Automatic annotation (TrEMBL), chains A, B:
GO terms for biological process: carbohydrate metabolic process. Coiled coil: none annotated. Residues 34-171 form the Glycosyl hydrolase family 78 alpha-rhamnosidase N-terminal domain. Residues 187-515 form the Alpha-L-rhamnosidase six-hairpin glycosidase domain. This is Putative Alpha-L-rhamnosidase (Putative). It comes from Bombilactobacillus mellis. InterPro entries: 6-hairpin_glycosidase_sf, 6hp_glycosidase-like_sf, Bac_rhamnosid6H, Glyco_hydro_78_N. It holds the Pfam family Glyco_hydro_78_N.
Amino acid sequence: MTQVKSSIMQKNDNFYKIANQNKPHIYNEKIPLQRLIQLKPDDTKFGGVKVSESDVDKQFLSKKDLNKGDKIILDFGQHCVGKLNLHIESHGEPMDSPLYLHLKLAELPAELVIDSASYHGWISSSWIQEEYIHIDELPCDLKLPRRYAFRYVEIEVKDTSSKWSARISNPFVISESAVTMDAVAPLKIADKTLEKIDAVSIKTLHDCMQDVFEDGPKRDRRLWLGDLRLQALANYQTFKDYGLVKRCLYLFGGSITTDNRIPADVFIQPKITPDSVFLLDYSLLFVAVLKDYFWETKDQDTLNDLYPIAKRTVNEALNYVDDSGILEACDSWKLFVDWSKEIDKKVSGQAILIYALKQLVQLADIQSDPDLNFYQQKISTLSANSVNKLFDQQKGLFVSNGQLNIASQVWMVLAHVLPDEENKKLMDKSITTFFPIKGIATPYMYHHIAQALLESDHRTEAVQLIKDYWGKMIELGADTFWEAFEPDNLNFSPYGSLIINSYCHAWSCTPTYLIRKYL
Amino acid sequence: MTQVKSSIMQKNDNFYKIANQNKPHIYNEKIPLQRLIQLKPDDTKFGGVKVSESDVDKQFLSKKDLNKGDKIILDFGQHCVGKLNLHIESHGEPMDSPLYLHLKLAELPAELVIDSASYHGWISSSWIQEEYIHIDELPCDLKLPRRYAFRYVEIEVKDTSSKWSARISNPFVISESAVTMDAVAPLKIADKTLEKIDAVSIKTLHDCMQDVFEDGPKRDRRLWLGDLRLQALANYQTFKDYGLVKRCLYLFGGSITTDNRIPADVFIQPKITPDSVFLLDYSLLFVAVLKDYFWETKDQDTLNDLYPIAKRTVNEALNYVDDSGILEACDSWKLFVDWSKEIDKKVSGQAILIYALKQLVQLADIQSDPDLNFYQQKISTLSANSVNKLFDQQKGLFVSNGQLNIASQVWMVLAHVLPDEENKKLMDKSITTFFPIKGIATPYMYHHIAQALLESDHRTEAVQLIKDYWGKMIELGADTFWEAFEPDNLNFSPYGSLIINSYCHAWSCTPTYLIRKYL
């Protein structure tokens, strides 16, 4: 198996400069308090908690005396990415001690009932959105300096003194996004469930569109390549913010190694820093993002700049095709495909390589690249090898190192390795074999399944899947779509606790793309 | 017993204006890290903890990788009142999560080994000096916005991530005070213990001299009248900052009630606010602060402004003299004298009234006040009543509602109710009866005992008392003198935990006054 030898990042400052010339303007919106709520245990609800109106009406909040141990929960009525503001006064005798507050900011009520100290997962606990704050002098306008992703804020008074109480008034959020919701006309369709799913998708995308297409504003503010591809597609159907896609393309285009690999993600703050994580399929999909962008914009300058980068990444991947004509990832350059460690990814990798090559040849044609024929040749041989060596005629399914899994079929369908009729049959067979889907927890994989259904003439099944998966999140109280969701295992977290999950996550925003493009 | 009827605060904005014209300039000093330390349990040490050098030398601090759960303790080598600054960087892979820190700032190591959550005393836990801080981007220069009183800072890394470590460098404090230490020439005397006690007294006073004479910079930043009197006396022997005393005199002078009572304390921030706490002896002692100030400065304008206020407070106290010619405090206007609830305070109150009258007549003489004779008359009758009704000839001691206590004798000595010879005998008797002293925990009362010894020709005993009390604090590791200290009960706290005690407290700074004035 090939292994990565030397790999040194070669940053292209000129490309970074172009990326920064396309920095978005950040729009602010003032979001007022909608209501105060209280939480009660309820095993029938997501996270085991039921939301109800608080006894305190919001118009009486400013008169509510808050003393040691008192808690209130603010509900802003929508998912917000931005900064929290509160006005706080002291009431009673002169303020003879500081005010000490504990704030928890949550996207879902489920987060509020989990003790932060109980989290011991592998991802950093520093992402849990909470603060302990001392305030020496009241009245004050408290403006928390950090940006959070939240709808709910629990405020616990750790202490005042026996002489005075704290009173909170005029809470509001200043939200941040590179786009505004009114830039997209809401869908008006007969199917109200799809209409709602479309709206939540757009809100999810909106909240992830910041200085770059963020992965998830609560936690991971990096730019990820695999997520960028899906966000860009959803963006073309909705906000049409081409500058932000261009910025992100140049951030990756300026971050390629001496051995032609693009990192899976790039850090933006405090300075542009390519991560040391490399995923073969993400690197391969750079060409897809470029091709989708050019198809939308016809931006020839960007294509001229980045086409050579796209070629290098695909060429490098071709070096990993073994003697049998099948792509072989390696430990130092793995395939992602999905979080599931159970899925064998060999077939998926092969399909993604072919998919990437098919994007590349379309661009090669535009660029009148003499290598066009070479790439077309590669597609034929790789496709033939796939059918000959990976497809089980009897089962009618692709087999990945002896394993049958849905990812393999879906990516082969999307790569259109088989003629349309057989492609349809492959998907028929996949439905009978793998539906209802088990063991998949990422909207990223669900998106590709739904898209494969739509591209293989399975519209009804696609709509059903979208409703069963994304629709179910809405039933459970989602204002935005989640990083991870396994319908059969509601408490699933890739990190071991619901408190750390991101409930507004880039790669889950795609239903608006699927609905508006295919339906 | 007389009770307070109507009492409405009448603020004098003109006096407050004069107070604000005398706002001090705050001097800043940059205090570097002295060393890193570690703590080990040791029952023979104060607070049960022993300090030793850390394995990490300060010159290697900036190379020390700090990960989840790691702790370091910074020692700035002296008591500081000011703001903490740290430079923090990330080291390793790109910073893929916020840094989460827990900081504890302590005047003494004993505070660091007490879990904040274990404190349940009646004073607010919000005074415990600790912060939880998230930092989203490194490197950063962390400048904590709050002012603390501390020598030690424990920094615990709550979390980084598995990919990077935190590194801390260049910690320093910007200290704050209305005066500078170099303004006072150190005492050069043969007795090195007294020399050291004098130096620690001056440092204590220095750290409490801020925008006003603070009570204790760690916790209570109010201006207290009883403490002001002692701080002003120590200040006259050392920094000679007359403007700050003038400012404080006008803050109290501008805060008198319709029934002629001055509050025990005044809040300065966010705006000048007289407290609703009234103590009869503190109100009476306003005249003493004014007289001491005038004796030092000959500031006739201030005397002209505030003499009428001083008269009103003394006159009002005279209304509380009962038919037997003895002062009777009441529930709504108590006597402080000392924290001890066991001490009966009747005799002390009577003595303090006489003491106050003796200050007043000296000012009345300066002001050519026709009421001079009236006040001299009062002194005679109140003194006579004291001897006739409160002094037990047989015991040779004053008896307070049937109780013998040292406070009674000490205040009668300070009021010089008896002729000098008998005054000396009274103190002889007090020494044989009450020494070694039990049940007194405030430097405030110890000061008056020491001063009574010095004013009754007991120099040797006074020196011994100062060494046994203040000297003992130094032995236990005091950089500044403490709010409360009971030599026989080292864990004594008026609030139930050493973590909340103030270890740099105004009323404990007086040895420098006693040494420099009397010795």
